[in-house]
Each structure stands twice: as C-alpha cells, then as structure tokens.
Amino acid sequence: MSISQIGMLIAMIVYLVGMVGIGFKVADRNKTVGDFYLGGRKLGPLVTAMSAEASDMSSYLLMGIPGLAYLSGMAEVSWTIIGLSVGTYLNWLIVAKRLRRYSEVNGSITIPEFFTNRYGDKKHLLMLVAAIWIIVFFVPYTASGFAACGKLFRSLFNVDYHVAMIVSAIVIIAYTTLGGFLAASTTDFIQSIIMSAALICILVFGIMTAGGMDAVLRNASSLPGYFSLTHSHVGNTSQPYSFLSIISTLAWGMGYFGMPHILLRFMAIEDDSKLKLSRRVASIWALVAMFVSVLIGMVGLACSANGSLKTLTGNASETIIVEMSKLLATHGIFFAIIAGVVLSGILASTMSTSDSQLLAASSSVSNDILTGFFHKKMEQKTLLLISRISLVIIALIGIVLAWNPDSSVFRIVSFAWAGFGAAFGPVVLLALYWRRSNRYGALAGMITGGAMVFIWKYLVRPLGGNFDIYELLPAFLLALIVNVVVSLCTKAPEQELLDDYDKVKSMK
Predict the structure, then answer these.
(1) Is residue 423 packed enough to be buried (19+ CB in 10 Å), middle (13-18) or exposed (0-12)?
(2) Which residues contact 264 (CB under 8 A, 6 or more apart)?
(3) Most confidently modeled of 12-21, 28-37, 65-74, 407-416?
(4) HEC states along 206-274?
(5) More confident position, 374 or 304
(6) Does the pLDDT at position 38 exceed 60?
(7) How far apart are CA 350 and CA 144, in angstroms?
(8) What are the beta bridge partners of residue 231?
(9) Are 454 and 416 in contact (CB under 8 A)?
(10) 42, 72, 118, 299: which has the fewest C-beta neighbours closer than 10 Å?
(11) Neighbours of 221 (CB within 10 A)
C-alpha cells in the first residue's frame, strides 16, 4: 500500500471509529422507544437543520451532481437544483412547524403513527400500509448506501468489495443500534460538516490544478450547449432539453413532502419557535452545497481537458471527486490525510442517509406493525430490544440486496424518492392543511401513490414520448386527486379529530 493510500486510510478509519464512539456516548439516553426513534424531541435548531440536510442529500451531493455537471452541462443539473432548493424551502416553511405541533398534540413518534392518530384510524390500516411502503422503499435504499460504501473502498484501496461493504454496514449498524435517533442525528450533524469541508477542499485544489477559474470557465464555454438551460451538452454536440424534461426534473422537489427521515427531524426539534432558524440554515446550506458540487463538476472537466485527470465517461463521471482526491493524495502524506477527509465526506453522505433509513424501517416493524397494528403491549425495555433487533435484521437484508457490486446506486435512490414522495407527500399536506380530509381518502391516496410509481416506472414510462416523465410527478398528482375525491365522497371526520385540527391551526 502506498503512502498516499495509508494517509487516506488513516483519516477514514479515525472517522469511522468516531461515529461508533458517538453511538456509545449517547446509548444510555435511550430509555424509551420515543427516545430511540425521536430523540425525546430534544434536538436543537442547528442539529435539526444540518442532520435533515445530511440525511437528505446522501451521496447524490458528492457524486451525482458533480457527475451530471461533468457529463451533461447545466440544463439538467440546474433544473434539478432549482427543484430541490424550492422543495427544501417549502418543506421547512409549510410542513415543519405544523407537523411538529400536530405530532405532539396526537402523541405520534413515527410518520405511520401520525397518519393513524390524525385520522382516528382505529383499525390501523393507515399505519400498516404506511409501514409497508417504508419497508418496501427503504430497505433497497439502505442497500444502495451499503453498496456505495463498498464501491468507494474497492476503488481506493483495491480491497474486496464484499468485505468493504460489510465493514461499512457494521459501522452504520453499530452506532445506530446503540444510540438510535439521537446518535443518527448527532452523527448526521458532524457528517454535514465533513461533507462541507470535502466540497471546499476539492474545489480549491481542483481550481488550482485546472489553472485557475478563468481556465475552468473558458473550457466550459467552449463546449456546445454547456451553459444552456434549454440544451444539454452531449459529447461534442448540443441537444435540446425539452420543456417536458424540465417539468419532470423540477418534480424532484415534490418528493420532500413525503420523506420519512426528513419529516422525523421536524417532529424531533425541542422548540418549534426555533424552526425559522433551522429553515434558514438548511435552505442556505443546501443551495450553497449544490452550487459548489456543480462547480466541482466544471472544474473536473477542465482538469480532464488539460490532462491532469483522465476523461470520465458514463457513470464513471460520478467518481470525479474520488479521482480528484486520489490526485490530491499524491502530493505527500499531509495532503493524503486531507484527501482522506474528503473521501470521508463521501462516506459521510452515504452513512447519514443509511442510518436514518434503518431507523425509519425498523420503527415500521417494531412500533407501527408489531405494537400498532397487532396491538402487542410490552414494557419499554422489551420494545427497545425488539427495535434494535428489527434494525439489525433489516440491515442484514440490506447487505444481501447489496451483494451485487454492479448494482446501480442512483437508480434505486431515484425510484425510492419517487415512492415516498407520491405515497406520503399528498397525505402529509392534506393532513396538515385540509380539515375535511379523512381516513378513507388518505388510505386510497397512499395506496394509489405508491402503486402508481411502480405502474408508471415499469409499464407507462417505457412507452417513451410524452410518457417519458419522472414517475414522481404523475403518481403524486393522481394520489392527491384520489385523496380529495374519496374524502369528499365519504363521511366527514369525527368531531374529536376536527377539534385536534382546529387546536393545531390556532397555535401561534
């Protein structure tokens, strides 16, 4: 192993050990299931903001966005960033505070439980369906995170993919099982800082390697359609980026309203009056981080043009930060350690999402299905044990699903994002802002949204033409319509539920 590899490995091992250490440190704070899954509603505004964004962005921030900017220019990546930025801000603005208050009024610690309590679903069908969707979409989503970690270590140190993937999974399982939501949120906060440091380090190094920002801009300007918002840069040509593609790309922002791991952060903040600060921090960080990621893609392209880096094609473009980190590491042990910090940022972005997904999926098994739907009454210590066992079992399933080293990480992320956005997004918005919404509409909408993602993805979208739309958009709209129509065609909610709605609405 070379000196540069040793330096990178040292930095990454220190990072991994630190994450497990946090799990040990906060383990004794989990006295109840509410502590394990919601941190006792004691998160501060900065941890709330940054842990939400770290668990949101995942490896898409450090791999997907730079790769897209490197390969295709500004059209798709710009509309994606606009959609995600607007979605982030609106989610914090219109969902966060009301969901925090509503979930406390009706005593909910998970999203499926909130749906059940909001609509007075005594049969717990909403809880069951919501829990099933969480398991269906989150288990493979978690597997994609394990796979990303395995691929990263394999490409850097030429170690066996399966060994690297399993070790990474064990670290994530360890600190999440020990510390629960509080450990996940604390590590996510730290990981967001590491992700920020990674972006800055690589950007500065890349600009110097490319010959300055002027050289970066000159190279990008010389490429046909690179800076256009209506054309994509493909090879050495410029191809139209249609209005339908723009709408489809902007639809990514709609997914935020249904993301359980982000919504849980809203429910967990200690003081809802601090959510304004959280919203500002989260929105600004997300926008700046995505902008820097785009710049890194442009800088990497200039480095390839002057011969400092090899030319990357296809999915390999998503490894641009990895390739730049490896180049940085060749400048000596100090820079190798800095490169290790950068690569830890990629690891952090993946782990920060995986830990939240594990918690959400395990809560669906232990809290929503076992104790909620099947009404199994147990002591808190027993429930905590079952919660931890559920998390480990789900993680093991994720490891099995991630066994294939050639699995596509980002296709899984895109599909899961659409699934949650369509199944939960309309239900969340109507639950918070429409008094007449009832359990029948919510159940019909939830089933329709989740099912339509599969139908559109595998049966309709392959037809091409005007049907080539990201499945989130049609599934979300159809689920919203079904929810409203079924609610209006069935009996109104009980007075007790209306009283809760009015109580939350009247809070200042």
Answers:
(1) buried
(2) 37, 38, 110, 111, 181, 356, 359, 360
(3) 65-74
(4) HHHHHCCHHHHHHHHHCCCCCCCCCEEEECCEEEECCHHHHHHHHHHHHHHHHCHHHHHHHHHECCHHH
(5) 304
(6) no
(7) 9
(8) 240
(9) no
(10) 42
(11) 9
Secondary structure letter of residue 43 according to DSSP: B
Identify which of 392, 344, 413, 417 has the alpha carbon closest to the alpha carbon of residue 145: 413
Question: Residue 34 above 60 pLDDT?
Answer: no
Place of tokens 């994002």: 417
- Least confident among 47-51, 330-334, 375-379: 375-379
- Taking only the tens place, the pLDDT of each residue in 78-121 is 999 999 999 999 999 999 999 999 999 988 888 888 999 999 99
Residue 72 has which token pair?
A: 């295709």
Least confident among 132-141, 168-177, 372-381: 372-381
Q: Are 210 and 303 in contact (CB under 8 A)?
A: yes
What's the CA gap between 186 and 181, in Å, rounded? 8
Contact 395, 168 (CB under 8 A): no
How much is the pLDDT for 143?
78
Sign (positive or negative) of CA dihedral 294, 193, 142, 338:
positive
Model pTM? Answer: 0.84
pLDDT in tens, 45-75: 887 887 777 667 766 777 778 888 998 899 9
In 3-state terms, what secondary structure has residue 469? coil
In the predicted model, is pLDDT for residue 25 greater than 80? no
In one-letter notation, the amino acid at residue 507 is M
> Tokens 């995170």 — which residue?
145
pLDDT above 70 covers a percentage of the chain that reads 83
Residues 6+ apart with CB under 8 A from 90: 253, 256, 257
Euclidean distance between CA atoms 398 and 311, whole angstroms:
33
Length of the chain: 508
Q: b vs e for 111-130, b when ≥16 Cβ sit within 10 Å of the residue's Cβ?
A: bbbbbbbbbebeebbbbbbb
CA 424 – CA 217 distance, rounded (Å): 42
At 450-468, the pLDDT tens digits run 999 999 999 999 998 888 8
Q: How far is CA 69 from the centre of its chain?
A: 20
Nearest to 149 by CA among 399, 421, 423, 363: 399
> For residue 208, what are its two tokens?
């110097």
Cα–Cα dist 34/113, whole Å: 12
C-alpha torsion angle, residues 50, 53, 56, 58 (rounded to 10): -80
Query: 458-482: string of b/e by CB count within 10 Å (b at 16+)?
Result: eeeeeeeeeeebbbbbbbbbbbbeb
For the chain, the average pLDDT equals: 83
